Amino acid sequence: MIEPRFGIWAPVGGNFGPLDTAEEPIDASFERTKRLVLQAERLGFVTTLVAQHLANPRGLELDQLETWTASAALAAVTERIEIIAAIKPLLFHPAVLAKMALGIDEISQGRFAINLISAWFRPEMERTNIPFPPHDERYRYSGEWLRVVKALWSGERVNFEGEYFKIQDLQYHPTARSYPHPPIYLGGASNPAQILAAEQADVYFINGQPLEDVQQVIQQVQGRSRPLPQPVRFGLAAFVIARSTDAEAQVELERLHALQDREEQWKLSIEKGVDPNAVMFQIFAKNRAVGGNGGTAAGLVGSYDTVASRVAAFVDIGIETFMLQFNPFEQEMYRFAAEVMPRVKRLQSRRFAPIRNS
User: Fold this and answer.
1) Containing domain of residue 216, as a range?
2) Mean pLDDT of 108-133
3) I need a labelling partner for 235 at 20 to 30 A (CA). Which of 54, 84, 188, 213 fits?
4) CB count, 10 Å around CB of 354?
5) How confident is the model at residue 358 (pLDDT cuts 50, 70, 90)?
6) Across the strands, what pairs with 204?
7) In angstroms, rounded to a whole number, what is the distance separating the alpha carbons of residues 224 and 231?
8) Residue 15 domain-assigned?
9) Inside any domain, residue 358
10) Taking the alpha carbons of 25, 31, 34, 38 in that order, is the dihedral positive or negative?
């Protein structure tokens, strides 16, 4: 039996879905992120994902909170929630990042994880003159980078020489609180991403897609060769619209679509910066969705009972972690915690209740 875990995307780049509205003005400040993550923790959400961009992909003139300083600060002010910091390996040498991660792991008392992404937003690389290799090479780079990081986290004395990195007689103390290392989430929709997830990740993040498509992705990853003893687990990104009735949720979906469509300049900013070989954006093009990373394409739109049943259906095919987006964030996060989470729990308890002999 899979116990579903609910998390939130930290709003480090502003809002999800429509970026700037009367109901939710744009705000990418740390104070807002801290407040919402603390509220999420109180409401029973168990994890939060802090995305990584040097510059906001929806507009280079927009605010974007830095991931690793924000994650360290969140680790210090929270008590129970898992802090997942996204990392683009091209931005940090693995020996530097490994030590930074161990510091946040210590601050959080073992509540820290990373989400490895191999980068897709070209302008932040090109304008800083950071090398941006072709798509498949980025995954080769990430695989070698990750092997170095995991070895250093585990307390090994590392001597490593590969295609990209050379490490000589290096060992870190303290080692990670989580054995054998902090959890590794991995995102990406391409074959190289799936291969790397099967080889080295603990959790494979899937962007919001319909249930049948998600099930196919899970089967593909499970069919890959995996040298690790434990099976890969799965997470899903989704934007939630939950209301008393399906009709009310549909009205809200159309309202958010209309608001999002007015912000065409920010949509174009993303499209112009996308690596054309990034498979996830080819998938996004098939679905008109509200929110990022597939958003409402996951189908968590409807009445409270409808959304709860769809969550349960995703759990049935293997999704464990749901990383959620809302707009307006605070109001809808409360609504989900009050109305949907208890319904999911009741569905799970009924479906897995022991059968009593008469």
Assistant:
1) 5-351
2) 88
3) 54
4) 5
5) very low
6) 186, 234
7) 11
8) yes
9) no
10) negative
Count of other CB atoms within 10 angstroms of residue 309: 14
Cis before residue 133, ω within 30 degrees of 0?
no
SS3 category, 88 = coil
CATH code, 71: 3.20.20.30
Q: What residues have CB less than 8 Å from 106, skipping those under 6 apart?
A: 174, 177
Q: Model confidence over 91-114: pLDDT tens digits?
A: 999 999 999 999 999 999 999 999
What's the rounded Cα separation, in Å, for the pair 338 and 141?
A: 43
Cα-based angle 29, 10, 273 (whole degrees, multiple of 5): 85
Domain count, the chain: 1
In a domain, 107, yes or no: yes
* CB-CB contact of 119 with 125 (8 Å): yes
Instruction: Tell me the pTM.
Output: 0.93
Backbone angles phi, psi at 332, to 5 degrees: -75, -30
DSSP alpha helices (H): ranges in the chain? 30-43, 67-77, 94-107, 122-126, 135-153, 191-200, 211-222, 246-262, 264-273, 279-284, 304-317, 329-335, 341-351
Widest distance between CA atoms in the chain: 72
DSSP string, 252-292: HHHHHHHHHHHTHHHHHHHHHHB-TT-HHHHHHTTS--SSS
CA 200 to CA 26: how far, in whole Å?
A: 37
Q: Is 72 helix (H, G, I), strand (E, B) or coil?
A: helix
In this structure, is residue 320 part of a structural domain? yes
Rounded distance, CA 271 to CA 5, Å?
32
